[in-house]
Each structure stands twice: as structure tokens, then as C-alpha cells.
Amino acid sequence: MAFELPPLPYDYDALEPFLSEQTLTLHHDKHHQGYVNGLNEAEEKVAAAREAGDFGSIRALCDALAFNYSGHLFHSIFWSNMSPDGGGMPDGPLMEQINADFGDFESFKAQFLAATNSVQASGWGVLAWQPLGEKLVILQAEKHQNLTQWGVQPIMVLDVWEHAYYLDYQNRRSEFTEGFFDVVNWEDVAARLQRVMQSGA
Length: 201
Hints:
mainly alpha, minor pseudopilin epsh fold, three-stranded antiparallel sheet, 7 helices
């Protein structure tokens, strides 16, 4: 079954002034769609290689699968991590877990912003559930699939590829990442945390 581009959960201009309608349209309709197309194409080529028994290009195919799947996954989380009604601070079990793992919300926010702003070139800041440690961790994901911890479950991601913000912020990445906290959909992040904690994955 082919992967599909998920629709945005809000209008293209709904996150202004944080993100412009132009940026969100380009990012969702062109860049995210590109990862979906690349993933479907890579899966078709892998299936053809299996059928032919010819794995001479498997290195490139594995790279294409990892790159495009990770891009599709992170973008799918990213859209629902934001809301025109977002911002503020989380509460309930999510806040309790943040306090337990980072000391307090301000320490968590400072670490998340520092990690995200210092991603080299293109990548993401990631808040994830680490099942072995039973705790939240903050990661950098350069080129989507790099610098990961196997088995972690991303629950909040922030895209710092330049296409995510350059039209609105140029090279002011830190201004963009700080503004993200004005639109964070904490209900979505909390629901994701609840699901991964319950799954035991």
C-alpha cells in the first residue's frame, strides 16, 4: 500500500505570523510530498530488486528508504505538533514527566532549543520517549536518520531544514525555534507520550 501525504490539520495561513501561508504551502505540498514520492519509489525499486534477485543497488536503496521514510515520519508528526491554539505550557502527565527528566519546564525548553539550534546544516530537534530508560530524551536528527537512538519514539519534532523557515526568518534560526513554542500543540504531544508509554515499545 502506497504512502500518502497527510492533510494539514489547519488552514495554510493558520499559523501566521509564526509561519506564513507561503512557507507552509511550499513546505507541506512540495517538500513533504517529495519525501512521500521518494519513499514510494524506493519501495517499488526494492520490490523489483527482490523479484529480480539483483541487489547490486541495495546500498542506495536502503539509504533512500531511510531518508525518505524518516522525512515522511517527522513531517507527519511536525504538522500535528503545531496548532493555531497552541503555546503556553503543558500540564498533567506530560509536565510531570518533563519535570522528572529535565528538572523543570524552563530547563527542558532551554535544552531543546540549544540542541535544535546547534543541529549542523539540515535536521531536526526531537523530543522522544526512551523505552529502556523509561524517560524523555532530547536528540538531534541530522539528515533525518542520523544521530538516532534505536527504539526511541519521537513525540515532538522541530524542523530546522532551511526550507522550514528561510522565507520568513532568513538565517535567524533561533528566532524561528523560539517562536515554535508559541504554537506547540501540547495536547498532541501529551497524547503521543501516553500512547508510547502504554505500548511499552
